[in-house]
Amino acid sequence: MATNKQVRRQRIKFGIRAKVSGTAERPRLSVFRSNTAIYAQLIDDIAGRTIAASSSVELKSEADGNTVETAKKVGLRLAEKAIAQNIGLAVFDRNGYLYHGKVKALADAAREGGLKF
């Protein structure tokens, strides 16, 4: 049994990463949540580079804190950047977080923006 939340999330994260990997044609959409912001990036694991990224930090003027609405804006922004680089498919990596709240809002917004996963 996990001793605390961080250890539990790391264990779940390693299980997800053992199964999920991104390529240039189908990158991994990785989500990171902090107390103050939410970050999302498309990663090509084979080349080891980030293809596109978006965060609530770069939307500071439009964002109203770390809310579900901000997560939706980040998802739409990431989808726009991906479509601009001719990327339509992705693999979703929730990074050990529950698929609920901000993580779900970001994923749904990315789907609305044109990404398929």
UniProtKB/TrEMBL annotation:
Gene3D superfamilies: 3.30.420.100
One GO CC term, this protein: ribosome
Source organism, top-level taxon: Bacteria
Keyword Amino-acid biosynthesis: no
Keywords: Ribonucleoprotein, Ribosomal protein, RNA-binding, rRNA-binding
Alphabetical list of Pfam families matching this protein: Ribosomal_L18p
InterPro entries: Ribosomal_L18 (IPR057268), Ribosomal_uL18_bac-type (IPR004389), Ribosomal_uL18_bac/plant/anim (IPR005484)
NCBIfam families from the UniProt entry: L18_bact (TIGR00060)
Assembly mode: Part of the 50S ribosomal subunit; part of the 5S rRNA/L5/L18/L25 subcomplex. Contacts the 5S and 23S rRNAs.
UniProt-listed PANTHER family: 39S RIBOSOMAL PROTEIN L18, MITOCHONDRIAL (PTHR12899), LARGE RIBOSOMAL SUBUNIT PROTEIN UL18M (PTHR12899:SF3)
Protein's job: This is one of the proteins that bind and probably mediate the attachment of the 5S RNA into the large ribosomal subunit, where it forms part of the central protuberance.
Stated family: Belongs to the universal ribosomal protein uL18 family.
The protein, known as: Large ribosomal subunit protein uL18
UniProt organism field: Spirosoma flavum
Encoding gene (name): rplR
